[in-house]
Amino acid sequence: MNAPTTRKGPQALDIKSATLHTVRLVLHSADTHELLEALDWRMQEAGAFFQDEPVVIDCSAVTDPIDWAALIHALRQHQLHPIGVCGHPDQEREAASAGLAAVELAATRATIEPTADLTPTVSMPAAPIILRKTLRSGQRIYAPDGDVVVIGMVGQGAEVIATGNVYVYGPLRGKAVAGAQGNTEAFIAATEYDPELIAIAGVYSVIENPESNPHHKQSVMIQLDGESLRFEPLG
């Protein structure tokens, strides 16, 4: 019988891999004034939804130099925590001097590549996360590999986030985010629509006056239609 394996050396810590859910900040300009103005507007519109979230800055669509110090300071003023950057190598090197790590964002769409024998393969989707309970203020559910199904109420201040679809069989009164990694085919379905905020693949809507919303407390499915959210009745 083999003796149990024991680790040598100090045991005060371990280094392990982890998957982290972050906010992706996509830059469309390098102009500092435009960026800070847009950030102020977006954060005012979103309220406290993104507060204390880690942020990866996607500057891959920008070629001009970026004032990283000013942008990082502005993000922290809004209680966001920039941790990394994704862009051209020169931009990543400049961002590194400001303390941001270069990261590679996960692909949001599947790609198909021909194989030598062209044998078809079947990719099975990840099983959804299913919850049969009420989510209360401060609680968050995140599905990094697929859908979330909540059979119960999502209360005010609660969050449901999925890289796939979000299904709420009950009142949706908190926040729901589908397509969290950019999946534009994702959707949100709720049997009683009364949320604080919804978002699909980065396109979001903050509901400030619920009773004036034409879909208030209705059964709806929400999908992307270009850069807008499209509502359809369920059933």
Automatic annotation (TrEMBL):
Protein name (Swiss-Prot/TrEMBL): Probable septum site-determining protein MinC
Subunit structure, as described in the record: Interacts with MinD and FtsZ.
Pfam family membership, one: MinC_C
NCBIfam families: minC
HAMAP family: MinC
Domain of life: Bacteria
Function: Cell division inhibitor that blocks the formation of polar Z ring septums. Rapidly oscillates between the poles of the cell to destabilize FtsZ filaments that have formed before they mature into polar Z rings. Prevents FtsZ polymerization.
Gene Ontology BP annotations: cell morphogenesis; division septum assembly; regulation of cell division; regulation of cell septum assembly
Annotated Septum formation inhibitor MinC C-terminal domain residues: 130-231
Key words of the record: Cell cycle, Cell division, Septation
Family: Belongs to the MinC family.
Residue span, Septum formation inhibitor MinC N-terminal domain: 13-82
